[in-house]
Amino acid sequence: MADQAQAAAAPTNETAIMPAEHNAPARRAFPAKGAPLITGINRIGLWSLYRKEVRRFMKVQTQTVWAPAVTTLLFLVIFSVAMGRSGREVLGVPFATFAAPGLIMMGMMQNAFANSSFTLLTGKLQGTIIDVLMPPLSSAELMMGIVAAAVTRAVMVGGAVALAMLLWPGVSVAVAHPWAVVWFGLMGSMLLALMGLITSMWAEKFDHAAAVTNFVVAPLSLLSGTFYVIDHLSPLFQTISRSNPFFYMISGFRFGFLGESDIGNSNHAVIGAAIGVGVLNLVIGLIAYRLVKTGWKLKS
């Protein structure tokens, strides 16, 4: 009986540790399995992806920035010699001054496409695509990082070309409407960056991406009024030119420099094209987002 009384009076192990549990600091509550740890925009991840893409093409900037600038400048020299002799003028300015904005825009668009069409395609071919897909980045953030880097390269190329043309005798790059230069420059670069992103998902080898460059991007760029005004074309080819979105990019960009273009010679005439270019970017962006979100040809 005494033993039972002592056992009843003695505290159990659970009773003994209760004060310790009550005095212990509260443990961190982790979210449920599958719940995201990062809410909102992953700024650090997005910035890291952007820096990675920019550093990638800057490591070979001689090839990715300065070489396209030299190539574009050669276009100006060749066409100026072939078509700009005897003081020939287009839209009231010397031919070289007329062609300069179109060449700047063409260089920007082509290099934006080249940059964004390389990232995912290289990852698929080298088996490193997991390094892009595994980080905690949403589909929109992945798109934003790749497109922003491509636009950055486009702006750098455009700046290099403009600097070279500024030093070229007989060429004026004075800006008449800054808003048109900024808007059409960014929209054109973004459109080609989105097209490059879709191409990099679709392509299975570098030949596929090169085919899009050679048979889609280059012809649309060269046949968009870069070196001529479409008023000199037949009505049929004028209609074809007006159905080319690159025509509005280059003509709107030229309007920003010269104050005149095939679209019109006033802000009111060009605003419609500016809105159309923005809507086109929105549509292509939504298509690209849907493809990235479903992992089309990336996760299979």
What's the quick description here?
The protein has 12 helices and 2 strands.
Mind sketching the topology for me?
Blueprint lengths: L1 H8 L3 H11 L19 H16 L2 H23 L5 E2 L2 E2 H32 L3 H4 L5 H28 L11 H25 L3 H17 L12 H8 L2 H14 L8 H28 L6
Antiparallel strand pairs: 1-2
Helix pairs in contact: 3-7, 4-5, 4-7, 5-7, 5-8, 5-9, 5-11, 7-8, 7-12, 8-9, 8-11, 8-12, 11-12
What can you see in these coordinates?
It is a multi-pass membrane protein. Residues 1-10 have a biased composition (Low complexity). This is Transport permease protein. It is found in: Cell inner membrane; Membrane. The protein has one domain (43-294). It is 71% helix and 1% strand. The protein is built from twelve helices and two strands, in the order H-H-H-H-E-E-H-H-H-H-H-H-H-H. The relative contact order is 0.12. Mean pLDDT is 86; it is low at 11-18.
